[in-house]
Write a structure and sequence with these properties.
Elements (H helix, E strand, L loop, with lengths): L6 E10 L2 E11 L4 E5 L6 H8 L7 E6 L2 E2 L5 H7 E4 L11 H6 L14 H13 L15 H14 L4 E5 L7 H18 L2 E5 L3 H7 L2 E6 L2 E6 L1 H4 L2 H8 L3 E5 L6 E5 L2 H5 L13
Parallel strand pairs: 3-8, 3-9, 6-7, 7-8
Antiparallel strand pairs: 1-2, 1-4, 4-5, 9-10, 11-12
Helix pairs in contact: 4-5, 5-6
Length: about 280
Amino acid sequence: MTTTNQLSTRGLDLRYGDRLVVGGLDLTLPGGAVTAIVGPNACGKSTLLRGLTRLLAPAAGTVALDGADIHRMPARTLARRMGLLPQQPVTPEAITVEALVRLGRFPHQRMLSPWSAADQAAVDAALERTGTTPLRDQPVDRLSGGQRQRAWIALALAQDTDLLLLDEPTTFLDLRHQLDVLDLVAALHAEAGRTVVMVLHDLGQAARYADHMVVLKDGRLAAAGAPADVLDADLVKSVFDVDCRVIPDPETGTPLVIPRSGAARHRPAAADPAHPASR
């Protein structure tokens, strides 16, 4: 079977107890691309990511990686192909950055095998790539939010997978650190051809950094495709209940959502000096 790192779902239902969160989802996430999953709060974005990574078993339907059901794969095999940065990961108490990143090598370890030079090289490369080498001996719980996110991304990189899934990697970060993390994700994709799937809230950032966008509403698929093809004012109104304009980003040309605030909607139109009657 050809490895393309393509994730797909067919008839996927995801539940928490009796509550259906994601229903009847047929979806294909292209391999070798950056996909952003967006939608309103509580629409099922993080639940979908949990389903895609086998953290949540389907109530119905399937999740496949390159056509193979992920629930039929050995856990270690899946971990060698798929890396995950969960939302608000729990950091082991007093663990250092390097010790945290070393955990990413667990899927590659064999029983009774010693820590190898290849393992250490992978950890060193992950620290270097995320700019966390100077922090390697620092306790993770003493880092800033942006530094902590980079340390967790380094763990995922040390896992050395071609598929990386990130659940809201910019949450609780200020704008600079949001852009730092997203620029790092873009570089990892561009340099190594990694397939990236990430849950984001900011539609402008999703459109700027993603090749493919998945829009969810109430646990159902509202739209999927290239951001320029799916992101328009009608979609934003339908999914987010926000009146807006969608214009080209002046920096990138990607779709940029400009909300119409309540104040703007009720403000009298400015007079046009070319038409005295409008004054």
